[in-house]
């Protein structure tokens, strides 16, 4: 690159603004002007009509993992990429994928009822009556044949089991019935198993997702009485991917463990049902009346049990190995071919999958089509673009995880960023990912127009934050003054997991949502007809997602200096640390109050000579937890990040070192990996972000420390503080080496 361009890029980063051109991190004035012009041309190439037709085509028939239709869709996607000028290959992996052979659920006492276990076709939507549908089931449930009393456990989350314990109700040796919601589905049977249950049944209550919320499908978008949410119950917080090849790509000849050895598989059978099938089971329950927050929308009094409802649950599965097809399409970079910009969305579905995943896949394909058109007109990306259409996401992120594990060493050298999408619909921008990219994404959100309001998607999202702040004066003032929008931390549930959590590759996840309420998720009713009526009429947010992810892709491909901001990362981690200090203080205060109440009750009883009592059992007092190692490490990192930022903004500093510096910047996140992994789940190695062990999709930040505190494992909490502090110190040393022009592992790169 020319000397004057490098100097201008550095000055731009320092000044934060350029006359006549909006600031664009990593670009000088001239190249920013060219980038904006290219993005305008890119926008002009996008078509809502193409989004419409692609969703219609991809969701025309059921296409679950391992089906002939799933393979046909992968082939059709590959053909599209080839026609647009991408060098395209289909990588095949061989994964375990269980499908149901026998499903029985029947109430055997106090009356008899045999569950329907199917979703009724709707004449208004012919796709709901197609052949080839997988029936409702929970993938990765084991085979099982159990009969026992039923216990209603509300949402089946930790707080609910604490409530049951206070009420003296045990689920040991019983079958639990849990509502969908308030946590990922796989956590519910996991907790039931840990509490001694021998089976688990899941259903969606109409209070949460059904007639209580609005008109059911097909009249409206909400769950009708027959709707059932399918889905995987693999223990994603332990590890995703093929359970039989943990940490290793599932090639045809890969070494596989026995199913009984897989740490992320359940031991008790689990089955999802409709609220039509749940109603007679709940109605027959006795025992205490359910607490008010537990009650649902069905027209009777909710009881907890156990009994007199007894149910028989029998499940038998085909435990097959299936080929899966990842489509990988590339445009080779003109200057830095070994720096990869990864962009992905999955293509498999549980049934027709118009919303999940065809809406996201259609946006990705339209984005790639437009980029291919720019390429044919003469534009060449400086870095290599790698577009990925993943297979087998629904059973547990199998396609992306196996690919990432198989290519791990190469990815950790070459992958600059992974950009993910999944479902998409009408609404507001949702962005999550590595917080070194938060300022960069705010610039992208500034430059994309919302189709409903014509404001930027950042302005619209900011307006929602202001409204959500309520009438509290301080909160409202803070919300109004905050001009940027915050990036969410990433848990799991989509294809970014292997990249960020296992390999330490900077990752982001993008979608639009918020004005698309309804209950089609993972049901037979996730069809094109449902999508066009209720999810994104006009398909305008499909093109909005393509504009958003397309800008991320184009800017990362061509930025002279990669726009990573470690000051923003430090600010975020500082906030996480403050949260943990507050959490410990809250636990300490709560424990002291609980113990005071217990002792007070004991002394009242012991004053009565006619009522002998035993000594009270109190909670362990909360010990002092030393956060100083973490706080000191963070202070050192803040100083290093600020020094690096100053160096990058120093005119001429980048001369002769641009490629080496860029490689140092994008590999920096790998310093946050702990090779030992998190306690009890070594696959997850990122010390800053992970899915919660008992929350599933939802994230836990500083997870090793936070979860140890929540579980009151105080020694482990101290050890994990040390682990995070060590990771931050590794990053500090790494940034210092970049600043001194010797980042590792790229000491001898040439321009």
What does this structure look like?
By secondary structure, the chain is an alpha/beta fold. The chain has 3 domains: 27-94 and 322-564, Aminopeptidase, CATH 3.40.630; 96-318, Glucose Oxidase, domain 1 (3-Layer(bba) Sandwich), CATH 3.50.30; 567-739, Transferrin receptor-like, dimerisation domain (Transcription Elongation Factor S-II, Chain A, Up-down Bundle), CATH 1.20.930. Helices cover 39% and strands 16% of the residues. It is built from 22 helices and 16 strands. It has helices spanning 3-15, 29-45, 48-58, 68-83, 158-166, 187-194, 206-209, 275-283, 354-376, 398-406, 408-414, 438-446, 457-468, 473-481, 497-502, 528-535, 540-558, 566-606, 628-648, 658-667, 703-710, 714-739; strands spanning 87-109, 113-114, 138-139, 144-152, 175-179, 199-203, 231-232, 270-273, 310-331, 336-346, 383-390, 415-420, 427-433, 507-514, 689-691, 699-701. The strands form 3 sheets. Strands 1, 2, 4, 5, 6, 8, 9, 10, 11, 12, 13 and 14 form a 12-stranded mixed β-sheet that branches. A hairpin with a 7-residue loop joins β15 and β16. α18 packs parallel to α21.
């Amino acid at each position: 690159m020319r000397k004057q361009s490098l100097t201008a890029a550095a000055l731009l980063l320092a000044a934060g603004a350029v006359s006549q051109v909006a600031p664009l991190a990593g670009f000088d004035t001239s190249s920013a002007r060219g980038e904006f012009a290219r993005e305008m041309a890119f926008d002009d190439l996008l078509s809502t009509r193409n989004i419409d037709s692609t969703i219609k085509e991809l969701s025309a028939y059921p296409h679950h993992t391992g089906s002939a239709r799933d393979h046909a869709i992968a082939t059709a996607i590959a053909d599209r990429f080839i026609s647009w000028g991408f060098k395209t290959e289909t990588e095949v992996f061989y994964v375990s994928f269980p499908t149901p052979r026998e499903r029985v659920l029947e109430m055997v006492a106090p009356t008899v009822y045999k569950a329907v276990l199917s979703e009724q076709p709707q004449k208004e939507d012919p796709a709901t009556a197609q052949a080839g549908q997988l029936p409702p089931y929970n993938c990765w449930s084991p085979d099982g044949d159990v009969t026992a009393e039923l216990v209603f456990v509300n949402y089946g989350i930790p707080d609910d089991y604490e409530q049951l314990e206070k009420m003296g109700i045990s689920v040991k040796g019983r079958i639990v019935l849990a509502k969908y919601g308030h946590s990922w589905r796989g956590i519910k049977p996991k907790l039931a198993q840990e509490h001694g249950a021998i089976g688990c049944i899941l259903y969606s209550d109409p209070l949460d997702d059904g007639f209580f919320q609005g008109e059911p499908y097909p009249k409206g978008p909400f769950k009708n009485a027959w709707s059932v949410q399918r889905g995987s119950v693999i223990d994603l917080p332990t590890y995703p991917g093929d359970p039989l090849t943990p940490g290793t790509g599932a090639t045809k000849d890969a070494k596989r463990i026995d199913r009984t050895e897989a740490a992320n598989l359940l031991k008790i059978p689990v089955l999802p049902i409709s609220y039509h099938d749940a109603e007679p089971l709940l109605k027959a329950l006795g025992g205490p009346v359910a607490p008010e927050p537990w009650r649902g929308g069905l027209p009777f009094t909710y009881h907890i049990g156990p009994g007199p409802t007894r149910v028989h649950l029998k499940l038998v599965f085909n435990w097959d190995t299936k080929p899966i097809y990842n489509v990988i399409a590339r445009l080779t970079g003109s200057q830095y071919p070994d720096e990869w910009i990864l962009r992905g969305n999955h293509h498999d579905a549980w049934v027709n999958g118009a919303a999940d995943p065809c809406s996201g896949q259609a946006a990705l394909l339209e984005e790639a089509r437009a980029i291919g058109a720019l390429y044919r007109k003469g534009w060449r990306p400086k870095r290599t673009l790698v577009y990925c259409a993943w297979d087998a996401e629904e059973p547990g992120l199998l396609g992306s995880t196996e690919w990432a594990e198989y290519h791990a060493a190469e990815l950790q050298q070459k992958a600059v960023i992974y950009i993910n999408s999944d479902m998409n619909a009408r609404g507001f921008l949702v962005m999550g990912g590595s917080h070194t990219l938060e300022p960069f994404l705010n610039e992208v959100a500034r430059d994309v127009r919302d189709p409903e309001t014509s404001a930027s998607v950042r302005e619209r999202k900011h307006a929602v934050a202001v409204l959500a702040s309520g009438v509290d004066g301080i909160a409202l003032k803070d919300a109004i003054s905050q001009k940027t929008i915050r990036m969410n931390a990433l848990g799991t549930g989509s294809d970014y997991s292997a990249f960020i959590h296992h390999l330490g590759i900077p990752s982001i996840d993008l979608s639009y949502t918020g004005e698309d309420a309804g209950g089609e998720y993972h049901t037979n009713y996730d069809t094109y007809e449902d999508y066009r009526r209720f999810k994104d009429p006009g398909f305008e947010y499909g093109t909005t997602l393509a504009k958003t992810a397309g800008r991320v892709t184009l800017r990362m491909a061509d930025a002279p200096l990669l726009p990573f901001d470690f000051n923003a990362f430090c600010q975020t981690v500082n906030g996480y640390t403050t949260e943990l200090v507050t959490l410990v203080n809250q636990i300490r205060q709560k424990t002291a109050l609980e113990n005071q109440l217990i002792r007070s009750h004991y002394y009242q009883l012991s004053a009565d000579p006619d009522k002998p009592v035993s000594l009270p059992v109190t909670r362990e007092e909360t010990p002092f937890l030393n956060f100083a190692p973490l706080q000191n490490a963070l202070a050192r990192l803040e100083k290093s990040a600020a020094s690096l930022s100053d160096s990058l903004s120093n005119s001429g500093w980048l001369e002769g070192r641009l490629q080496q510096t860029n490689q140092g910047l994008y590999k920096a996140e790998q310093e946050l990996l702990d090779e030992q992994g998190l306690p009890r789940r070594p696959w997850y190695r990122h010390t800053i972000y992970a899915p919660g062990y008992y929350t599933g999709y939802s994230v836990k930040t500083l997870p090793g420390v936070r979860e140890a505190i929540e579980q009151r494992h105080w020694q482990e909490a101290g050890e994990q503080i040390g682990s995070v502090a060590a990771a931050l110190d590794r990053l500090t040393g790494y940034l210092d080496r970049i600043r001194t022009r010797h980042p590792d592992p790229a000491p001898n790169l040439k321009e």
